[in-house]
Structures
1.
Amino acid sequence: LRRAFRRQREILAMKGQIRRSQIESYTDELTGLPNRRAFDRQFKSSLEYAKFEKQPLTIAMIDVDEFKFLNDQYGHAAGDEALCSVANHLTRFIRTQDMVARYGGDEFVIICPGLCREGANSMVNRLKTSILPMGIELSIGVATYPSDGQNMAEIMELADKLMYQEKEE
């Protein structure tokens, strides 16, 4: 009987470890946001849902301007702090149905189900204005299903292209 209870405790401990590993595999360690793996998974299901419901789906690709300069000038700790500040701001800024994720490096992405191009442009303007007092500027590219693409690759490619275009300007 003791052996059975011990075995049951071991199984519960293993299940807990597996659950923690699953959470960690979808979470960015620095910011606590969902990571790219989680984003890819959510974007795929959000796009399938948008197609099924015939609803728009907007993606906003976000790049922190002058991030390399910040890291070089003030050190990586300051860069990490800036990324965490941006992550916190984005999290507070988005709607409850949206998802913000760290895409990689100094790039973030927001999935906005049901948001059309006009709504996305309004959101981008409010976001840029609201983050300026923090001394941070963002380059943002927006792409919307179905007008800008029919699949993940097309939508992401356009959002990325528009983000870099804005960065260059």
2.
Amino acid sequence: RPAHHEILVVVRNSTRVYPDETGWKVGGRLHWLWALVTDLATAYVIRDSRGHDVPEEFLGLDYDGVMGHDGWAPYDFFKQALHQQCVAHLLRRCIELLEHAVGGAVSFPRKVKGLLQDALDLRDRRDAGTVTPHGIAVATGRLQNRLDALLANRRMDVANERLAKHLRNHHDELFTFLREPNVEATNWPAEQAIRPSTANRKVWGGNRTERGAEAQGILLSILRTLWQRGANAIDF
């Protein structure tokens, strides 16, 4: 418990956090396994809620660092944070729309997909050192202008308008990774942290008791954080 408490303190004080959640069972009842990943530590907790109350419990609603996450609505409650919407999730939405779109409905998801791919290409060129900071700023502004133009009109296609509404609501959260070089474009750190637990869930299904779920969260947090820091769990 003391080590877990230290991990929670590190997470709360971090400048960047990548949260994610997945379904879990405790005593056969639906719960959620949450992972909050930072550069130095990862905290896991199991709760019967998938709402904003869980990350609020561990980060505080006044958290003002960067949050990189998928489009799950409870993260919107963190008004003081700087957000990055997961670009990979948005690209998958575009691909799914393109698989079913016909006629003129193809245009919008195709243009959004191209916009996001151009943003990732700009990131890669920045990381390779082939574009200056000024060039990054100018190119990011052009990407934002392209987004504004795409969202200027309402879409007749219901599925396209649903995506457009999400993009309007998170207008300033798509290119944070270009303005802040240490921010990931996707929430892959959280998804990687969740993945071993989803494999475990398939083997035994979850926990029998709330006490077991609490122990699960503590042990997962310690083992993952030790792995992040290159420390030996047995020695610890």
3.
Amino acid sequence: MINLNSARMAWHDAFYTPWDSQGAHVEQIGLLGCSVQKTEKSLNSRHAMHQSISARIQHAIDTLPPHLKAFGNFMYSPIATVDDKEEADDALFMAAYQAGPKMYAKKFEKAQLVAQGVLHRYRRMHQGGQSEGVDPCPSPEAFRSWLLSVLGLELDSRNWEREWEQFVEACFSACNDFDKAALVPVSLAIKEMKIAA
């Protein structure tokens, strides 16, 4: 069933098909020699309710502008695509870039990778829907090490505060803004469903 206590969880659940989907569950019950008729009726009802709630949440998500939908999908959908990730990376980079001072071309290219690293960190911290994750790179040293080992980007530690700290903060700020904006229509849909119930 869809978790309606969290917009993040609802986003995930609206795109998640549980292993015990209607056909698989009925088949398992039949293999166990149980009576299928009574169970199939309640299962059909539960499946229909899941489908109805999923459709409402997915409709709410579809009202978002493409960059927010991609960001939310990358963050929470179990069927997120590479396109979702790339669109979220690009939108995050542009938002953080526009929030700060202009950059030379050489730094611009590095900043795109730094933004990808921040999005990775933000996703790990909020994955699972309850924002209970741990920052995988809690220090500048750990982040620089991750950037080097995963993205092949080497950044000098000597000027970290002057060169990168403000940009990293702008990326996290943009992530927070995107996250809040992406979850608004989902939260409204949940509120409407709870009122109607």
4.
Amino acid sequence: MEMQEQTLRAMNQALRKVLTPLVRVMIRFGFSYGTFSEIARSVFVEQAYQQLQREDQKATASAVAALTGLSRKEVSRLTKSDDAALVETEQKRNRAAQLMSGWSNDPDFSSEGLPKRLLLTGDSDSFAELVRRYGSDVTSASMLALLTRNGAVETDGNTVWLLSDAYIPMGTPIERLEILGTDANELITTIAHNIDAASDQRVFQRKVSVDQLSADDVADFRAFSDEQSQALLETYDAWLTNRARQLSPADEMQKNERVSVGIYFYASDHAERSILKNSEEGEQK
């Protein structure tokens, strides 16, 4: 019983820490508690169904209701939700990132590790061919518009050139929120996996953390960290692109796995700055 109480307290504390920055963003964008509650109930239902299926139990509305504490009527209603739009947004982000990786690492579109300036159209080493090879079913016009909107490329009408080492879709609030959902999900999924996995099945999850730094120390380390982190991610990116390029058509039918490695920088004044910014904007209104 004592262990259960300690686990519950630890879960409560973890949940508050996870929700604090998320709720701050929700309030910033005008999301109500009712909206959050509806989404939370939907996710509880979804995960309960998956849990029952993993345990080879009957995944009925009654069983899900028992696991979640929701009524059977609520469970039935929530199973009809549609996340197609969110899936489409994430797919676009993945295709854009994959395309930019190919542009920087595929020798057909780069030279000595630097992306080439490409003709918009053509049968080889053109932007259209780059999109055909790395953009899945997205048209070259749609991809060009997406990358241009986010400041990743520029074009003079005949050629196009890459401006950024990485695709960071920050052009609109929708794209910024999509990053919040995808990247936070991947990090928490990794942590959740390591909680349950055997020691030899856990994946890499580490961080360094030091306090009692001055503001100048933080600024200096941020510059150092940005440089080192970008170099490491470019090394990973080149390795992955080269390996993916080696796939034969037969391999493509069998392999559809995706991996991500993320690096983040946190400073204790981030939350304070967000609160101050929101307060100032509220006063201006």
